[in-house]
Design brief:
The structure holds two protein chains of two kinds. Chain A is mostly helical. Chain A is about 75% helix and about 0% strand. Chain A has 16 helices and one strand. The longest helix of chain A has about 35 residues. Chain B has a single domain, classed as Rossmann fold. Chain B has 16 helices and 14 strands. The radius of gyration of chain B is 22 Å and the shape is globular. The termini of chain B are far apart. Classes of the chains: A mainly alpha, B alpha/beta. Chains A and B meet through helix 3, helix 4, helix 5, helix 14 and helix 15 of A and helix 1, strand 1, helix 3, helix 5 and helix 6 of B.
Chain lengths: ~450, ~350
């Protein structure tokens, strides 16, 4: 909790600094002309002194409340109201003072022009509270994040990032709305296609493929290096552990490879504990592994290309969502001069974007492509599993294939048992119809725990 | 103060109030509890369990109801929270409620088939309830895929089902509007099942569900400050998040068959579907049947559900439309007020 209240205090301090600085400049602006007229100078000084005193009292209370998080939280809205009233009252007094005195004293406009316009004065002050709100929201996001199940957290993070990212463009987007500039070409100048793709990636949870030719080149290079080493050194491998160690040394130098980092770590741990077993491990599966690696190489390139195509379809479909959104708000602005807040804008954009995306999601092309991406991805996974199995064959691990055999056998037994149970039930029924006493009544539902069968009645 | 400033200050004040309430509420959340209706496990077979929901006093209806939820996602959605619980409401309306929990399949279950689920587990549960209550028939309530299982079961064992209720249950899979139906037709299900090593992860399915309305999550999270400012809505949100995340994997062989025979070849509706060597004919369903669908269901559109009424031979059959989506129909406030009482009344009227 303390972070949140530190933030409140920090926001209040900034508000204090802002107003102090503003008033100081305003007072200075009057100074040269008030040398000859002590009255005006005193009036300005009085205003500032009165305001400063009130500010001090206000912030003293706020800081005291801030020491008790619960109290500060409860009082935040009330303090906000009090603070705003304080500022507004001051702004109005200054505006009146200026109107009454400045012109006749031949004053030049002070640096903070907004200070002489209560509206501008007020808006300037709001910035600090907006900042407090933003920080409050950030803190709130973190709290929500902690309460969410793990698998939902990436979705939430994606949302927060996309919201924050688009908000950075809010200033120019507002100008585009106000000026009715809603052609795609114009919008691209302020909200670039790259920025748009970034937002879509965040909202859709895409891992952007990026530059496909560069990526394919890197993939090919990686696989070629791996395969050439495999072919060259296959005969020299003395153990899987040594091989891993050597390979990792090679590949880790080629960049960030999380899978191999994990595998290296795993290898190092296993090496120490299972060294005796490595010595009796079978050799000669490298050729099969190499063939599989070649298959993976092409499957992976296919996966990359198809993913890129799929993403491009989505990008293309949604590219006019922003121009449409800006046009819609411009129409409203033209009639009412009302500007939306960012939340309303974001919501409208999201809805428009979804409508356009759904069109492409409903298309035959998308459906087929999505299926190809999914099946290619899972095929790569199964080939990778196979390589792992080959690599660790003959080690005292239960492989996937072993597990598969057990699962098959277990299910066959289950089905056999069910058929037998059904036969018993039919026999019972026949005996009952024949008027003979039933045997082994309800054998299938009575307590069988500990007798080899898993089905049981729970008392 | 000018109008603009007044509006701005009102907005900011409102936001400050919202954030303050939200902070207070979220700070107070300790545990996210779900499915709290008191129950007992009365039967189990491996990972599959049969629950009996506890009640005070005797049930008004003498025929108990067995709820069969889908294999996809978890049954807890039927008992999300005390004031949004189809289970609790059914119990309070005088129905004796049992529910099959299909469990969380793991790799050992990769060869578990539709026969195992329907002819095995479901049949065993029905038999168990009949024996416990000394009756020959139960009421069956199938939800979504669990509804399709219920239709299959009722076709094969009509003598064991007194009344059948299907909720948001697909039966006609030849649908061009529902994205799931469209995508499933193009799916290389063999590559998927084999690629995942025979057990299809729940996250894979959830990704598909998310894409049906790609901005749903964004919209949901966007409303968070307002959601969190209300303690009730906050807890509802967190419970839903936990429910969505709790997505069991699918036994590969069952998934493969369901996609191929239902989504890709639409065999059930054509009378071409077989289970355990027996042909499944929906016209064998002669017991009273209530078909419930959600008007705005984008996962199982109404058109995939409503043909049930034309395919069964029941004389006593009824279609019931409810507002809301696939999930909202169960967890929305209207569900408590309208849907569940309607089901309970329908069952009680046919309890002789």
């Amino acid at each position: 909790m303390s972070n949140q209240f530190d933030t409140i205090i920090e926001g209040q301090k900034k508000a204090m600094e802002f107003w102090s600085s503003l008033s100081e400049q305003m007072t200075k602006a009057f100074t040269p002309q008030t040398q000859a007229n002590g009255k005006a100078k005193d009036d300005a000084q009085d205003l500032f002194t009165e305001w400063f005193k009130k500010q001090q009292e206000f912030f003293e209370q706020a800081v005291k409340a801030g020491q008790d998080p619960q109290k500060a939280l409860e009082q935040a809205p009330e303090k906000m109201r009090a603070w705003m009233e304080l500022q507004t009252e001051y702004a109005q007094k200054w505006a009146k003072f200026y109107q009454d005195n400045a012109e006749k004293m031949g004053l030049k406009l002070p640096e903070y022009k907004g200070a002489f316009n209560p509206a501008g004065f007020f808006e300037e002050g709001m910035k600090n509270w907006k900042e407090w709100m933003n920080k409050g929201n950030k803190w709130m996001s973190e709290q929500v994040y902690d309460k969410m199940p793990y698998s939902m957290r990436p979705h939430f993070t994606n949302f927060v990032e996309s919201y924050d990212y688009l908000q950075r463009y809010w200033e120019p987007l507002q100008r585009l709305i106000q000026n009715g500039m809603y052609t795609k070409e114009m919008i691209d100048k302020y909200f670039s296609p790259d920025a748009y793709q970034k937002v879509v990636n965040q909202m859709m949870g895409f891992r952007p493929v990026g530059n496909t030719s560069e990526l394919i080149e890197n993939v090919n290079q990686w696989f070629e290096t791996y395969l050439s080493y495999t072919n060259k050194e296959a005969g020299d491998w003395s153990s899987v552990s040594d091989t891993w160690k050597e390979k990792m040394r090679e590949y880790m130098s080629k960049g960030n490879l999380p899978f191999f980092e994990m595998a290296t770590d795993f290898n190092n741990r296993m090496r120490d504990q299972l060294a005796p077993f490595y010595n009796i491990m079978a050799q000669g599966r490298q050729t099969e592994s190499a063939k599989l690696m070649r298959d993976i190489q092409f499957a992976y390139i296919s996966f990359v290309l198809k993913s890129a195509e799929l993403q491009t379809k989505v990008y293309e479909a949604g590219q006019f969502a922003m121009p449409d959104t800006i046009r819609d708000f411009f129409k409203k602005y033209k009639d009412s001069k009302d500007m939306p807040d960012f939340q309303a804008f974001f919501q409208h954009y999201v809805n428009t974007l979804e409508d356009t995306l759904l069109e492409v999601l409903h298309s035959e092309e998308y459906s087929k492509l999505q299926s190809e991406v999914a099946s290619t991805g899972t095929t790569i996974k199964s080939m990778t599993d196979k390589i792992m199995e080959l690599t660790y064959a003959d080690l005292p691990f239960l492989t996937k294939s072993d597990g598969d055999d057990i699962a098959k056998e277990s299910n066959a037994l289950r089905q056999k048992m069910r058929k037998l149970e059904q036969k018993v039930a039919e026999l019972e029924k026949a005996l009952l119809l024949a008027g003979k006493p039933m045997v082994a009544k309800t054998a299938e539902v009575t307590e069988t725990k500990g007798k080899g069968a898993s089905k049981k009645k729970v008392n | 103060m000018s109008n603009t400033n007044a509006k701005l200050s009102d907005q900011i004040l409102e936001n400050v109030n919202t954030v303050s309430d939200a902070l207070r509420n979220i700070s107070g959340v300790k545990d996210v509890d779900i499915a709290t209706a008191p129950r007992k496990t009365v039967w189990e077979d491996g990972k599959v369990k049969l629950y009996h929901f506890e009640r005070e006093g005797k049930a008004e209806a003498k025929t108990p109801a067995l709820v069969s939820y889908a294999l996809v996602n978890r049954w807890e959605m039927m008992d999300l929270q005390p004031d949004r619980s189809l289970i609790r409401k059914l119990v309070s309306e005088g129905i004796d409620v049992y529910l099959i929990d299909w469990g969380y399949p793991t790799k050992i279950d990769r060869y578990k088939t539709m026969e195992d689920y329907i002819l095995g587990n479901m049949n065993d549960c029905v038999d168990f309830i009949c024996e416990e209550h000394g009756i020959s028939k139960v009421n069956l309530l199938g939800v979504c895929q669990g509804g399709t299982f219920s239709l299959i079961y009722s076709s094969l064992f009509p003598e064991k089902i007194k009344n059948l209720v299907t909720l948001v249950t697909p039966v006609d899979f030849d649908n061009k509007e529902g994205l799931l139906f469209k995508w499933a037709k193009d799916m290389d299900v063999d590559a998927i099942v084999d690629g995942f090593g025979g057990i299809v992860p729940g996250d894979f399915l959830n990704t598909g569900f998310d894409l049906l309305k790609p901005m749903n999550k964004t919209r949901k999270y966007m409303a968070l400050p307002e959601t969190m400012a209300d303690q009730g809505r906050l807890m509802n949100f967190l419970r839903m998040e936990h429910w969505v995340a709790d997505s069991p994997a699918q036994a590969g062989e069952t998934y493969r068959r369901f996609i191929k025979d239902m989504y890709q070849h639409n065999k059930l509706i054509q009378g071409k579907f077989e289970l355990g060597g027996r042909k499944v004919e929906l016209k064998n369903i002669k017991m009273p049947i209530l078909t419930i669908y959600a008007k705005e269901d984008h996962i199982v559109p109404p058109e995939t559900t409503t043909p049930i009424n034309d395919l069964v031979s029941s004389k006593d059959k009824e279609l019931m439309e409810f507002p809301g989506g696939h999930i909202g129909v169960f967890v929305g406030s209207r569900s408590q007020k309208l849907l569940t009482p309607a089901i309970a009344t329908w069952l009680k009227e046919r309890d002789n």
